[in-house]
Structure formats: structure tokens, C-alpha cells
Amino acid sequence: MGYHRAGFEVTGVDNIYQKRYPFNFIQADAVDILKDHTFLRKFDVIAASPPCQTHSITKFLTKAQGGALSNRKNMIPATREGLMMANRPWIMENVEYAPLKNPILVCGSAFGLKVRRHRIFETGEMSLVGTSCYHKEQGRVVGVYGQLRDSIPGGGKTAETVEEAQEAMRIDWMIWSELVEAIPPAYTEFLGKQIIQKL
Q1: pTM
Q2: Alpha-carbon distance 61 to 146, whole Å?
Q3: Tens-place pLDDT, residues 85-128
Q4: How far apart are CA 178 and CA 136, in angstroms?
Q5: Which end of the chain is least crowded, N or C, by CB within 10 Å?
Q6: Residue ranges of the domains in the chain?
Q7: Which residues pair with 122 in a beta bridge?
Q8: Residue 3: in which H helix or E strand, if any?
Q9: Is the distance from CB of 196 to CB of 7 less than 8 angstroms?
């Protein structure tokens, strides 16, 4: 949504059908799509977001609550390789502790959101800028991860309702299971506007 608001025509790819996705959608493995260089030449920019569960600090919360740790494979190297071979401008997103190269950081506090949701972006050959953090000015944040109405050891809690999470992220079309994996559109609108100036 953020890239759309920045001025791009968006086509999304995921191996799971996204019922509420509001733009052109292709159900496929993104790594396979990255191998189709003829198809990729139709696009001005490629934005990738490989699964983050391997690198997310919330995996420890899952374990503390008796859940199983994710055994997903780290898809960042394969995604990076595909992006580099595609010969198009590209940007790749992941969680704060993921092994991205020379990433920039974006924080929800920079946009007045009620989530911090630090995300990092590797930008290939593009030189983009991230945001500063304004945590003190932001005050108490809403957690949008794990389970609804969840108290976090050491302080904090997740959203009481889906509506509270939607408002905190400024996303009104997703359900909880989608919100916990989403990037606030403010992030990609901010980055998308920079990308358009460089094309």
C-alpha cells in the first residue's frame, strides 16, 4: 500500500493466497519469480520481504509461551542473489536483527504511529535514508505480534482488539494474522517516494 501511495503500480507475489490483498497478485514462490528475468524486466523496481521468523526476537516469546521455534530456512541469501541477478533496482526488508548488508532503519515513531516496529532495508545500489526514532515522544506503544491481549514479561502488552492494532499500524483491511507480519504503509511510502526520485 505504501508503494502504491508513493506512486507505483504494484504487483504482489506470495506462495500463499492473500484474500485481502488490494493490488495485482500472483500466487507463486518469490524465489522462482526472481529467476524469470524476462518477466522482471516489466517492473521498474523489485521490493522483497523474505520470511523474518528466523531472525525475529519474538521467536523467544513464542518459546517462553510453550510454542515451537520456527525451523524456517533463512531465505535472505537466496532472495538477495535473485535480486542481484534480476538487474533491476531493488530493496529488501526484514526485522532489525536480520543479516542485511548496510541496512537503513525505519521506525514507526517517525510517522506518529503507535507501533515502533523497527524494520531494516537493504537497498542494493540505491542510496536511501532511513528515519530517526522518537520513542520518548511516542509514549506507550501497542504491540502487534504474537497473540491479542498478551502481557509481555518485563512490561508492555499486545493490542486488546484487532481494531486497536489496525489503528496503531494505520492498516484497516487486514486481520490479526496478517497484521502481525505487515509493514506499516507509512514505511514503504516514505521509501517509495525516495526511490521514484532516483529512477
Answers
A1: 0.88
A2: 8
A3: 999 999 999 999 999 999 999 999 999 999 999 999 999 889 99
A4: 28
A5: C
A6: 2-198
A7: 92
A8: helix 2-6
A9: yes
